[in-house]
Design goal:
This protein is mainly alpha-helical. The protein has helices at 2-13, 18-25, 29-42, 63-76, 80-87, 91-100, 145-148, 153-163, 194-208, 216-232, and strands at residues 129-137, 170-178, 184-189. The chain has 10 helices and 3 strands; from the N terminus they run H-H-H-H-H-H-E-H-H-E-E-H-H. The protein has a 3-stranded antiparallel beta sheet with strand order 1-2-3, with no helix packed on it. Helix 1 packs antiparallel against helix 2, helix 2 crosses helix 3 and helix 5 (80-87) packs across helix 6 (91-100). The mean pLDDT is 84.
Length: 256
């Protein structure tokens, strides 16, 4: 939009040739004249972008036929070439219909029912966070072999130091992604995720293997109670004997 307004300003207000202005703006003469014609016909509203989709599709597949394609796909689990003789349609058209309806990959279908398997997604931001740690090798000063090549002096020096037991080690990228919004947070640390690993160990000792459970549901039912105890009542040496909730300002049942 900004470039189109500049075009109008320089051609109309400054009375400059279209050929000179479009060269400055990096577009063709045809494009420049197109936007000028739209502006003269519609004013500033003509400078808005328009969808490139056609207003009418003369050869659009009939909706009932599309429904038949989808029904056979989910029932027979066959590809476009094998469905073409049954529907008396080109395989390319069947593929286009399946792609439009998200049925073009058998791996996305539940084999017994033929229904598309949808990935789950939480309804609200912050409801579920995905957390992971990625280990990456540290970079030596000046870069590694990807910068200098495998036959470089830097790469030979790396091998000599590695054989001598002098390694640069690793860095750990701690990442968290919100399930609903896909907002991401990442931070690089020289250590692994020690706090989470210690929590996993505590969780195994005090919940997962704390007693014999009748089944998985029995164990899952015990998780909320254990989490409440961990967060609100279990003392932590690193926190001076206080529970984790003590470090949360204005948490539940806290008014400070």
């Amino acid at each position: 939009m900004h470039g189109r307004r500049l075009l109008i300003q320089r051609v109309i207000d400054d009375q400059r040739p279209v050929a000179h202005v479009v060269k400055e703006l990096g577009c063709s003469r045809a494009t420049g004249h197109k936007w000028l014609a739209r502006w003269r016909a519609e004013g500033d509203a003509g400078l808005n972008g328009r969808p490139s989709t056609a207003h009418r599709l003369a050869r659009k597949t009939d909706p009932d036929l599309e429904a038949r394609v989808c029904a056979l796909r989910t029932r027979l689990k066959r590809g476009p070439r094998r469905l073409a003789p049954l529907l008396n349609m080109p395989a390319s058209t069947i593929h286009a219909v399946l792609t439009w309806h998200g049925l073009h990959r058998l791996a996305w279908l539940d084999r017994p029912t033929g229904q598309v398997i949808r990935r789950y997604e939480r309804d609200r931001p912050g409801e579920l966070l995905h957390v992971d740690v990625k280990k990456v090798g540290r970079l030596r000063d000046g870069g590694g072999w990807r910068v200098h090549g495998r036959d470089s002096d830097q790469n030979r020096l790396v091998h000599l130091e590695r054989n001598a037991g002098r390694k640069v080690g690793y860095e750990y990228i701690h990442a968290a992604i919100d399930d609903h919004t896909r907002l991401a947070y990442a931070e690089i640390h020289p250590q692994t995720n020690g706090k989470a690993e210690r929590f996993n160990r505590t969780m195994c000792d005090e919940w997962i293997y704390s007693r014999p459970f009748a089944n998985s549901q029995d164990r899952a039912d015990a998780l909320p109670g254990w989490l409440h105890t961990y967060n609100h009542h279990r003392s932590h040496t690193a926190l001076g004997g206080q529970p984790p909730i003590s470090r949360v300002n204005n948490g539940p049942d806290q008014y400070t």
